[in-house]
Design goal:
Elements lengths: L27 H7 L4 H6 L15 H7 L4 H12 L9
Length: about 90
């Protein structure tokens, strides 16, 4: 039945229709929350971002800079892992 005047939100169950919009300015906590399949990328680089109190305040660019990672390569790995069926490989 439901509440009068309340409509259930529609959920898109097709992951292909949702674009992966991850940039170097993306906040780490947002990336980890929206795309948990990216967690292995952070772990493979021995980053402490997963569970870190600073994750809600730092961008992927901050992480690349702080950990001396090539920003473009790091972003490519994050994006690849976030794709449906993506793989988070070791680099």
């Amino acid at each position: 039945m439901g509440l009068p005047g309340y409509t259930m939100p529609m959920v898109d169950s097709n992951p292909i229709s949702t674009p992966i919009n991850i940039t170097l300015e993306s906040i780490v906590a947002d990336v980890l929350e929206q795309w948990p399949e990216t967690i292995p990328v952070f772990l493979n680089h021995q980053l402490t971002c997963v569970g870190c109190a600073m994750a809600p305040f730092e961008t992927l660019a901050d992480v690349a800079c702080n950990y001396h990672l090539p920003a473009g390569q790091f972003l490519d790995e994050i994006r690849a892992a976030a794709q449906p069926g993506g793989q988070a490989g070791f680099s």
